[in-house]
């Protein structure tokens, strides 16, 4: 128990010293390359160098740090690649490297650190390299308003350095002062954090599983995070006052992990500004500036109540997840673009009560057979229903009366292979058939002529049906006069949009014109 309670600093001090072992060698062309295994705590990585690299390193250390000239095993001209010489040299070079690491137990000299790739894999080396980069280019990057790309391992290293509580400059070189990083992150507006799948570089480091803290970023407007574990990301909520656009992909198992990580600490919570009812253990501030959120390509199975914390969202992308039901979106009064493509939706019943103001809705790649829940989405302009299970033309009638609908996609549904599919679908839109673009193809005059014929045939069938069933007609007329059509008061005014073009997908390169590349 006592060991578990030790502070991070104590744990770091208890870690074994860095080690370098020459694990073997290989012949490349006419020279031998030595394979060096470097160990720093639980992290290991591989570096490869030929003897001449060792010689160059030694010359610099002799000049800069006055180490013993005879420490490095001498050159051999004859038989330099013989097996016996190589094996002996492997042992001698390992002793050489271990002697150097023992001589410099704290921060290794720059030349040695680079030789062993500390600037890629070791905490002090990573932060020193990052600080020097920002010392030289930081102001230029901030002035240009460019996106700054950084890896989880770099953020992990900065987080660990700050937790150690040591001086911000341990190497004696002012360029490597941690303060350069903190000054830059306080002012940065556009951030991209991208992890890697599998081990990082030549190491055993699983970069996507490393914890890191983003609270050092005080002014973020846009952030893109991918291939990280959302459960290990701390401090993102510190950007609530300024963050307008957020993308978290290949990282989360729930919306709560991203939007309200602190909810795990409380039994009951409510968003700031709502009327509190019952037992509430926490009031959580909202993401007051967030208007665009991309949580696509995750493992999210439900749209949970955390959406109450993003009341100003206009663009929401939840594509390529495992969402089963459209839920809780009634809290998003400003939502106009919703992407739920490639989920597991099988029903749209009552969806109009949750998406009253939606203009663009992407439902491609789900399990939908019926469209009955879409008939009251009076503001809908763009609708993508590709790759579903719709097989009845009757289902299209549910959207045929929507007054603003201009773009519809139904390809790769069973009904899309029936004869005269296009004209039969367009006929469901009645007088608005000429205004509808089906499957990204503009309606032709020939198709419109065929639609008119189909409408005439349908009308004739209806007249004939009424004449043959006068009693049914009278009953229908009486019901219609008793129940006048009243549009729900919550439905917005149906104003035709200025442009008929489909909006770009959420967080596309255009949306991230500052430099995001998804």
From TrEMBL:
For bias type Basic and acidic residues, the affected ranges are 464-479
Renumbered residue ranges of the record's region Disordered: 464-501
PROSITE patterns the record matches:
LRR, PX
- Repeat as UniProt keyword: yes
State a single Pfam family of this protein.
LRR_1
Q: Where is the composition biased (Low complexity)?
A: 488-501
Any idea what this protein is called? Nischarin isoform X4
> What species is given as this protein's source?
Galeopterus variegatus (Malayan flying lemur)
